[in-house]
Amino acid sequence: MDALSRGPLVGAFHPLKIALSTAIIVLGFGAVYLSTLIFERQEMLAKVSRYNVAWSAGQGVNEFLRLRQRVSELAAGEGSKQEAQLRLDIVKNRLELFRSGEFQPFVLEADDRRRTVESLSHFLHRAEMLIEQVENPATATAILSEMVPLEGDLIGLAAEANNYGGQQVARDQQELLQLHWTFSALAWGLVLCTFVLIVLLERRNRLLIQTQQKLHALNATLVQTSEDLEKANSAAHAANDELITQNRLFDTALHNMSQGLCMFGEDRQLIVSNRRLATMYGLSPESLRPGSTLEDITRLTVHAGICSRDSAENIHSEQLSLIARKKRGTLLQELSDGRMISILHQPMNNEGWVATYDDITERHHAETQMVHMARHDALTDLPNRILLRDRMVSELARCQRHQRSAAVFCLDLDHFKNVNDTLGHSMGDRLLREVAARIAILVRREDTVARLGGDEFVILQADVTQPADVDQLAQRILEVLSEPYELEGHQVVIGVSVGVAVTSGVSDDPDTLLKHADLALYRAKEDGRGTYRFFQPEMDARLQRRRTIELDLRAADFDQEFDVVFQPIVNIHTLQVTTLEALLRWPGCRHGPVKTEEIIAIAEDTGLIVNLGEWVLERACRAAANLPGELNFAVNLSPTQFMRGDVVEMVSRVLAATGFPANRLELEVTETLLLEDSQRSSCALRDLRALGVRISLDDFGTGYSSLGYLRKYTVDKIKIDRSFVEQISTNQDHMAIVHAIVSLAHALGMKTTAEGIETEDQLEIVRATGCDEVQGYLFSPPKSLADVTDFLGNRRSKSAAA
């Protein structure tokens, strides 16, 4: 503005001085006086620069408010430090203007103005020190708090500067008016000078008007700026209130979390934590003060006794590892009171981290229980197959490393099913728990006892140094488990069969070892139960043969592959054939001859005996149509047929389909069926006899013979097993047994049949015991239907000829 106002006047004043030189000579005093006045006007023009005081003050306030706005944005988490730095530098520049030029007299004119400028200087010095941390909301808020009182002082300074400029303009206008009248008085002598001066003054007035207009515009701008500042101030207050509300909500949420929380800065010092963390570790909230280190908190937890030193140091070490690697991770810490804490470590971008602490005690216990249940038997709490296999893997690896052996025992309880059937499953479960307890007493701590299901147990004997140790344990198992059990007033006696497999030291694996022990168990059962057997390599071959036969049996067409042969039963006195026993043969087996006993055993294990037994009964009944009407037919029934099928309904159906009379049918059952002592078997035998069918007790004397069975289950005939007949001519005990059986049967109103008669001596001895019937190769081996028809025809012819 100074250059704009002075430039044109200076250019016009030079020719005027030449024009007025003559008038100055004539009117020397007037010229001197006029020159003096013009000189004073030039000084006054120079003073126009003072009018810039208001503009400078307004610009300073504007820049101060812009600086405040940038700091407010940073306090709210927005804006940038660079913008705030720029505004701070501009305000510093304005401060220099306040201290120099025409503004300095204005400032020094009043003490309050001087204090305002000094306060601004002190604030800028303070802000210069804090500007590097202005992105921290707390720092920005501190700067704002210092700016608030200074803001009003600066606005007041701007207003005073504005008034100051206006007063200067008013005084100058008054002086110009006085000059106008003075120059008018001298107009007669100085017309030309007056005209020139009037022109110059007019031009100067126009410049002053323009200056005044600019000052008015500046004043309007200042007013608008003031209004904007008011709005900005209101917005800042609203933002501050919102920030306070947000902080309050954050504080409420932080301290009401179900999890403990702490945040550490890049300097590894605590920034914030919540009350839940302190409560979780038994600490006071005041002890977790900002600035604490992770090491401080670790020491506090140990000192509080909430966790052991080892536990705290381990967690601290793992956290330091995560911090160093800037990795996210979850840690588990068990406290002294048994609680389990899950610690989630989450790194932040600024080298700090956040950790949350969750009490997962109940969930951990539930998971532990689930893991335990998944690896243990629910009834006995013994390891199950999964845990057993894991321990076998570990033990076998240890055996290979240390050149030692281990043994696996497969145990199967004998007659356990009888307990379930007679006393109920709850009693059976209790018996299993008693068995588990007895086994646990027999083994060492390093051994493993497992239950695989049902009545099957497995023992893993670890670190076997002497083969005798395995034998000794097997014998102890037989002795201890066979002792009577007292169950709620019931004395229960069971047996146990044991299969043993010992590691070979070469390529041992759990599955193979269990398989070998199971094969040995199967052999122990075949050998009469109540014993133990060690695995032998040939057992595997027998198993493979059995599996092959089982597959063939499942796929077999009974009518095409099987056949029924008949062996005569002879009256010991008349030697007449009274009965034909139907026996099963499998000539169509692709793997060669198979013994009938083997076929029956596999069929019983697989359940195929139900269909196969019905097929044999039907073939026997249909064969009777081609034979004399006075002959009876005997057919064997398996205990499995009684357990898995409706025997009475099956027999009734076959008799109805074939038209065979029930009174000519004799069904042979074994002592095993009677031993089951089940209501189902008892009812089935009673219903069969009600049909008119006769019941024979086969292989009597080889099983668990009991007079109680004979009294409870009424049978029509007892068949004496061939094992007693084979040595009857050389073994007096066998002859006595046969004689006792015959006497017992006759006393009970039953007939007797001796099996396995092969010599005349045997026949005569058996006849002497009073036996009713005999059966064996002495009379005829089992024959096909055609051959037995011829056999019967020949015997009738011989009888007629005699």
From TrEMBL:
InterPro entries: Biofilm_reg_signaling, EAL_dom, EAL_sf, GGDEF_dom, Nucleotide_cyclase, PAS-like_dom_sf, Rev_trsase/Diguanyl_cyclase. Residues 215-242 form a coiled coil. Keywords: Coiled coil, Membrane, Transmembrane, Transmembrane helix. Residues 546-796 form the EAL domain. Residues 404-537 form the GGDEF domain. It holds the Pfam family EAL. One of its GO terms (molecular function) is catalytic activity. The keyword Coiled coil applies. The chain crosses the membrane at residues 18-39, 181-201. NCBIfam families: GGDEF (TIGR00254). This is Putative diguanylate cyclase.
